């Protein structure tokens, strides 16, 4: 029998990777916002049109890229964030896989302007379906602007699978909230179809929560704070009387990264036991700081699930910290529990 195995061409490999990284416009938003944060930006603008189907643009004032880096940033496994496997166990950046831009460029039309502070001129590059259309010198401010158009232009099945503009915008806003809540010291703007939806100035955490969720949020917040050898916890839980029928505002951040953890969620809910009705859900915004070497973020391309070395200890500390914080606010179980 003849040999039949061959290496896939790069653009095919990129398209396959894109299937995992980019589910919908909100996935592109997440990747671009995270890149802007990793670039040390202090102001990040997100501009979308038609729920991201027509345009997703992120403009930052971060470190920018040289013309060579600008070209290289769209190659697969091209990253400035890690250099060896050990670095995986000591991550301080959002990105490290070097896959996002290559993936997005494989399935969309993409245009980038970028310039590092110390250079006179920047670079303008246009890529469609992994093909460089042109790269030229451009006069542009310090930082990077990336515009993604016609997402899934070459994967009709994916494009047809997208929901209405409103639903896609909802997903984008959720992603925007997660990133903005993780980084109160960075200013963010969000525009949809030309109108400003959010204008979040640089602030502290409480103020950021109010700017995102409105003034009604402020009186609900009970501060949570604890420092141990395993974890530092800060943030807020909402007072029990504000528990809601629908699971709404529940956020975990680990080392400034939004994550989902049913196990830690359970720890929080159990701290509210006896204080809220069992069919209601407490609000929380909890920031855990752990040693980067005690977690594994590299489980899934979107990085919203992570593995902790010692989940059980974390659970116990979180539960008792929240119980303590609620106790300090002299919350009494005032609810009648009908059977
Ligand atoms: P990763 O973030 O995992 O490194 P990406 O594909 O998202 O991979 O980006 C590739 C590289 O492009 C990054 O490592 C970074 O050097 C550069 N880059 C991407 N976005 C920006 C940006 N907004 N500002 C400066 N550099 C960027
Ligand atoms: Mg990235």
UniProtKB/TrEMBL annotation:
Listed GO biological process terms: mismatch repair
Domain DNA mismatch repair protein S5 stretches: 209-327
Keyword entries, A-Z: DNA damage, DNA repair, Endonuclease, Hydrolase, Nuclease
Domain of life: Bacteria
Single annotated GO MF: ATP hydrolysis activity
Cellular component terms (Gene Ontology): mismatch repair complex
Family affiliation: Belongs to the DNA mismatch repair MutL/HexB family.
Function: This protein is involved in the repair of mismatches in DNA. It is required for dam-dependent methyl-directed DNA mismatch repair. May act as a 'molecular matchmaker', a protein that promotes the formation of a stable complex between two or more DNA-binding proteins in an ATP-dependent manner without itself being part of a final effector complex.
Listed name of the protein: DNA mismatch repair protein MutL
Organism of origin: Costertonia aggregata
Lineage: Bacteria, Pseudomonadati, Bacteroidota, Flavobacteriia, Flavobacteriales
Gene coding for it: mutL
